[in-house]
Amino acid sequence: MLPILTRLRVPAGFLLAGLYIWLARPTWPLWLVGIGLAFLGMLFRGWAAGHVLKNDRLAVTGPYSFTRHPLYLGSFVIGLGFSLAGSSLTILVLFLACFFLMYGPAMRAEEEHLNQLFPLRYPDYRKTVPFFLPTRWPTGRDPAPFSLQHYRRNREYRVLLGFAAALGLLLWKSWRF
Predict the structure, then answer these.
(1) Contact 73/44 with Cβ under 8 angstroms?
(2) pTM to 2 decimals?
(3) 2-136+143-176: which CATH architecture?
(4) Helix (H) or strand (E) holding 102
(5) What pLDDT sits at residue 64?
(6) Higher pLDDT, 131 or 28
């Protein structure tokens, strides 16, 4: 059942977006806090996208030195921020339940995939870098800087477009209602 939930992430996201627009009751204080948090999540995701070359090399620099799943962590922070901005406990509970039911198994599957792709490097990386929440400050210099080319190749600009669309809808709902 869990692999099915993992595959339903994108369609479920659209369904949740519709529910979000319907249930959101934005208030300015929570809106400001939530949008600020979502913006930080988007920046973190963008930073991660500029360090990863999926399936080509093991990303261990930048945000990958803090957490093994910075793209998912960024998505979590974005979702948490927009949940707060919507000022609805129902939205927050739905988001948290869906995130952990769908993305938890996806992260585990990704770990297995990376272990198969990089059997010599991944076990050591896995031992030293936290799974999801950063718990330490990495040591050493970051040998691979952020790459705008990687950011584009990973199509991370779509997250920026989604952020702008969600922000616009929230502004519209705040003004309209």
Answers:
(1) yes
(2) 0.90
(3) Up-down Bundle (1.20)
(4) helix 89-117
(5) 94
(6) 131
How many C-beta atoms surround the C-beta of residue 76 within 10 A? 21
Give how far the C-alpha of residue 109 lies from the chain's centroid of Cα atoms, to the nearest Å: 16
Scan for tokens 């500029």, then name that residue: 50
Between CA 167 and CA 177 the distance in angstroms is 15
| CB contact at 8 A, 174 and 31 | yes
Q: DSSP letters along 42-60, please? A: HHHHHHHHTT--TTTS---
> What are the boundaries of each domain within the chain?
2-136+143-176
CA distance 97 to 26: 21
Burial class, 151, CB count within 10 angstroms (exposed 0-12 / middle 13-18 / buried 19+): buried
Collapsing DSSP to helix, strand or coil, 35 comes out as helix
